[in-house]
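#struct-help
A.M.: can someone run this one for me? Single chain, 197 residues.
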Amino acid sequence: MPLLSAAGLINGPLGPIDVAVDASECVAVQGPSGSGKTLLLRALADLDPAAGDVRLEGVSRAAIPGPEWRRRVGYVPAEPGWWSDDPAAHLADVSAALVEFSRLGLEDAVLRRPVAQLSTGERQRLALIRALQRDPRVLLLDEPTAALDPEATRAVERLIAERQATGTSVLWVTHDRSQTERVASRVVSLRGGRLES
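D.P.: on it. Structure tokens below:
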């Protein structure tokens, strides 16, 4: 049984889509701009009203309260949202986050600057740490390393690989084919809102 599955998933111009991800699997999602990659992740994360049967470990999304679903199915958007300008307000455990900061090349001083003053790359890594602190079963990543240099990109890839080793599944949107080869065991391609493979 797949860890996450969707059958007949429709979100606006996206779909219908059938997709499944096994435990510890990383599936890369590719396709041209506007093909529906973000719509797919948002529908799986229960952030948009979407039709179809979506299941986590065999349990229907309809049977799991929205906040709990979004804890278990963590979404890291390309442009993360922030409810406070204080970076620490977004972290469940600041001490644990600082360990990840060090691993991802973030300075502790990031916590002393308003979110609005952080670089795009700093915000991307902060959003990833925020999502990981909720201990999701599935990670939905939308270009999480797009603004990072090669060293920081590899650090993110290593961190995600460690989570996979503990059973976390990953759907990873990336335009970087070399990254796809490094992180994914399988690739699905979207075009015009439909899966090509």
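A.M.: thanks! Residues 4-78+126-195 form a domain with the Rossmann fold fold (CATH 3.40.50.300).
D.P.: also worth noting: The two ends are 20 Å apart (CA to CA).
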